[in-house]
């Protein structure tokens, strides 16, 4: 029902119309059999002999023309109502699918960075590609199910009219069949749940296969171990649970299909031995029962998709619950000019996942100043820098731009002040935002300054290629930040992939140039040779800031680290 609620929320009028048309189509379906039975009823024994009822149209004789016209009309009516009902809901379904995907994109965009890191890309991609599709496929079945249910109910009404005793027997058979069928479907659903769980693990291992290709290429043993013990293990698990689920569900569907025939057999051969049923009523009952096998089949065939859709719906809901909204004001407001950002008594923890704790730390970042952050692996440099770049909010303490505190209301606006290149940066293949001729001209100038003009061109705002060396890709990322022209620049080991010449250009020209232009520059670096470029040098150890601006002490600490 939750699935259907999605449709109702998206387009209530269309869904209502589709349902009404579906119900009308179902009722009309149920009328077809009584119409035929009445049409072929004859007092003289054979239908053909009833000459008074014959009408000639285009040279063809039509027996019982009134019923024939009614039958023909009902057929056309069903064709139109059913098609319109399905098309309407199918169009809503397509919109719902797109809306669901879009809301997942929004959710991802608004989620805090640590939430995204915790969930991980493979799970998100599995949800966007697998779950959303399954939800909509399941929900799309609803008009057919509805039409079929109405047809079955209508036919049951007809059977009640024909013979109440047969109807009572039929209801008992339906109850028994329904319960046993649901039991099988429940078992099938459990297999599909397990398969869906394995799909997440499979996506995670596919990520390892692609991103770890370099590591796997060099070792047969590693490759075999990864392939057989991890990747194929998950692949086989999906395969096994899907097969088991489909086997149970197929058996259930066939069993469900055959229930009607069992009932027909029992009524025709056993029930008639104990109850008075006249021949005409028995023919009507058998015809009715044969007729409802189609709609029952439709309902049964749709149920596996509904089961999968429900599993996927639960998965998406679970995922959304693990991706809380940052709850910050999305509006970008003008902010007051500022000179100093103060991080006061800030602390940060990643939650229960790790016992690492950052802070409390107090430090100032000023415009026209270069701050170096150094420290050993795992000392907390990147964690601190994510707070300095306003990607993360401290768990306690406060951040002030001069005297204005950063709050949920203005965080998004202050983020517009920052650009950062982390070690795990992403290089978009185009310049995002408005592309003006001036911007393109500036980009071309930077391309030359960064020594990339012989490698890359910018056409219509797109880089001609991003298939470059790591160092070259970082230079393009730098170009993008230059174009953004923000007030705070943060570089996380940016120079690590650069050749010695360009390293010198970065530390001796680019950083001082940014400083001259009034930018607040933060650099995470292990390049001791260039520490003299820093106006402020801070050292991290075990999540705490241990030294500040004491180059000698810093050298001692670095010796300790090395
Ligand atoms: N995404 C994360 N989830 C949970 N804990 C994390 C996460 N990232 C880092 N940590 C924890 O924070 C600690 C500090 O990590 P951080 O990346 O800040 O160190 P670093 O000084 O930048 O190290 P390196 O020089 O190796 O990049 C780690 O030891 C780890 O325990």
UniProtKB/TrEMBL annotation:
Biological-process GO terms, alphabetical: peptide transport
SUPFAM superfamilies xrefs: ABC transporter transmembrane region (SSF90123), P-loop containing nucleoside triphosphate hydrolases (SSF52540)
Pfam families assigned to the protein according to its UniProt record, in alphabetical order: ABC_membrane (PF00664), ABC_tran (PF00005)
Subcellular location: Cell membrane
CC annotations in GO: plasma membrane
Membrane-spanning residues: 54-81, 141-161, 167-187, 258-275, 281-303
Membrane topology classification: Multi-pass membrane protein
Alphabetized UniProt keyword annotations: ATP-binding, Membrane, Nucleotide-binding, Transmembrane, Transmembrane helix
Domain spans labelled ABC transporter: 341-561
Highest taxon, organism lineage: Bacteria
Principal place of residence: membrane
GO molecular function list: ABC-type transporter activity; ATP binding; ATP hydrolysis activity; peptide transmembrane transporter activity
Domain ABC transmembrane type-1 as annotated: residue spans: 15-308
PANTHER family in the cross-refs: ATP-BINDING CASSETTE SUB-FAMILY B (PTHR24221), ATP-BINDING CASSETTE SUB-FAMILY B MEMBER 6 (PTHR24221:SF654)
Protein name: Cyclic peptide transporter
């Amino acid at each position: 029902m939750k699935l259907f609620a999605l449709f109702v929320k998206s387009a209530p009028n269309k869904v209502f119309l589709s349902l009404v048309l579906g119900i009308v189509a179902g009722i009309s379906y149920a009328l077809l059999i009584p119409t035929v039975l009445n049409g072929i009823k004859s007092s003289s024994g054979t239908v053909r002999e009833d000459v008074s009822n014959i009408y000639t149209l285009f040279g063809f004789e039509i027996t019982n023309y009134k019923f024939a016209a009614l039958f023909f009309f009902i057929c056309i009516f069903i064709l139109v109502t059913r098609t319109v009902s399905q098309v309407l809901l199918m169009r809503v379904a397509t919109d719902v699918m797109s809306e669901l995907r879009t809301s997942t994109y929004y959710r991802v965009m608004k989620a805090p960075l640590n939430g995204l890191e915790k969930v991980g890309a493979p799970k998100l991609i599995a949800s966007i590609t697998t779950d959303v599709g399954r939800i909509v496929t399941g929900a799309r079945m609803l008009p057919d199910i509805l039409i079929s249910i109405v047809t079955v109910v209508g036919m049951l009404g007809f059977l009640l009219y024909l013979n109440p005793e047969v109807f009572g027997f039929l209801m008992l058979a339906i109850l028994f069949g329904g319960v046993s069928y649901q039991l099988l479907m429940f078992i099938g659903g459990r297999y599909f749940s397990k398969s869906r769980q394995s799909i997440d693990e499979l996506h995670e291992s596919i990520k390892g296969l692609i991103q770890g290709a370099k590591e796997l290429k060099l070792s047969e043993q590693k490759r075999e171990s990864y392939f057989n013990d991890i990747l194929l293990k998950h692949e086989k698990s999906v395969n096994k649970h899907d097969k088991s689920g489909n086997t149970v569900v197929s058996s259930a569907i066939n069993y469900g299909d055959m229930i009607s025939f069992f009932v027909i057999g029992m009524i025709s051969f056993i029930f008639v031995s104990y109850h008075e049923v006249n021949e005409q009523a028995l023919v009507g009952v058998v015809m009715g029962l044969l007729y409802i096998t189609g709609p029952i089949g439709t309902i049964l065939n749709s149920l596996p998709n509904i089961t999968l859709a429900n599993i996927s719906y639960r998965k998406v809901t679970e995922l959304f619950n693990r991706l809380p909204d940052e709850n910050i004001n999305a509006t970008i407001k003008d902010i007051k000019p500022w000179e100093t950002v103060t991080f006061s008594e800030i602390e940060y923890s990643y939650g229960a996942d790790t016992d690492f704790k950052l802070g409390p730390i107090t430090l100032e970042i000023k415009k026209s100043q270069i701050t170096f952050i150094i420290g050993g692996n795992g000392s907390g440099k990147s964690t601190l820098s994510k707070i300095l770049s306003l990607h993360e909010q401290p768990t306690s303490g406060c951040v002030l731009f001069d005297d204005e505190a950063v709050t949920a209301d203005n965080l998004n606006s202050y983020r517009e002040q920052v650009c950062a290149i982390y070690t795990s940066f992403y290089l978009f293949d185009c310049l995002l935002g408005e592309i003006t001729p001036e911007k393109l001209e500036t980009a071309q100038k930077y391309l030359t300054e960064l020594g990339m003009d012989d490698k890359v061109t910018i056409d219509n705002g797109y880089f001609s290629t991003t298939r470059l060396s790591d160092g070259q890709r970082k230079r393009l990322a730098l170009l993008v930040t230059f174009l953004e022209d923000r007030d705070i620049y943060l570089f996380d080991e940016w120079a690590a992939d650069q050749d010695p010449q360009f390293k010198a250009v970065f530390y001796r020209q680019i950083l001082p140039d940014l400083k001259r232009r009034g930018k607040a520059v933060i650099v995470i670096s292990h390049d001791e040779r260039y520490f003299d470029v820093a106006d402020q040098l801070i050292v991290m150890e075990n999540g705490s800031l241990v030294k500040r601006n004491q180059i000698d002490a810093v050298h001692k600490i670095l010796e300790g680290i090395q």
